[in-house]
Design brief:
This protein is mostly helical and 189 residues long. The protein has helices spanning 3-33, 40-60, 81-90, 114-133, 137-172, 176-187; strands at residues 96-100, 109-113.
């Protein structure tokens, strides 16, 4: 593969990653605002699944190397306190969960939080988006890849697992009589 082809491929990955990042951040922001509380869990489940696919793509490519020794400062971190607070209100009673520190090296448990996880993922993703929007695609791609492997990938995987578990309980722990009546009504209307 020529250097030019590789550069074109990386540029395409960077552009697609920027699109995926924007879509994820929009979903999280909309859910935190309370726009569709009944759909919050499925929307976040879909958004996390998509952004984890994006992260897996970043993890599968060659290591992105910065041109300079240090990444340029993209500017201040985005204020995610409104997102974090909105999600904490939405997930009241479900926000905190048990998490394994590192499933490969330790069985030690720690406490996790959906609202904190989602807000910190947004911070990491927007940091790379700032590089993208400033016309620094290598720095954007480097940051997204680095932060996927060091922080947001783990937080996204944990949050996805928790949301999938919550959704399973919601759907499968229903009263059997109510489910049977709904099935009967659906089949006989």
């Amino acid at each position: 593969m020529s250097d030019r082809t590789m550069a074109d491929d990386l540029a395409a990955v960077e552009r697609q990653t920027a699109e995926d990042v924007r879509a994820f951040c929009d979903i999280v922001t909309d859910v935190a605002r309370g726009d569709a509380p009944d759909s919050a869990i499925p929307f976040l489940l879909l958004g996390l699944s998509q952004v984890l696919l994006t992260g897996a793509r970043l993890g599968a490519i060659q290591d992105v190397v910065l041109v300079e020794k240090f990444e340029p400062d993209p500017g201040p971190d985005v204020d995610t306190d409104p997102v974090r607070d909105g999600l904490a209100r939405l997930f009241e009673g479900l926000d905190e969960y048990a998490d394994v520190v590192d499933p490969v090296t330790s069985v030690e448990l720690t406490a996790g939080s959906l609202s904190n996880d989602l807000a910190s993922i947004v911070v990491d993703l927007v940091h790379g988006l700032q590089h993208h929007e400033a016309g620094r695609p290598v720095e954007a791609l480097w940051w997204w890849q680095f932060s996927y492997l060091s922080s947001w990938g783990d937080r996204a995987a944990s949050a996805l697992r928790v949301l999938q578990s919550v959704l399973s309980h919601i759907r499968l722990d229903a009263d059997e009589e109510i489910v049977a009546e709904a099935e009967f009504d659906a089949l006989h209307t």
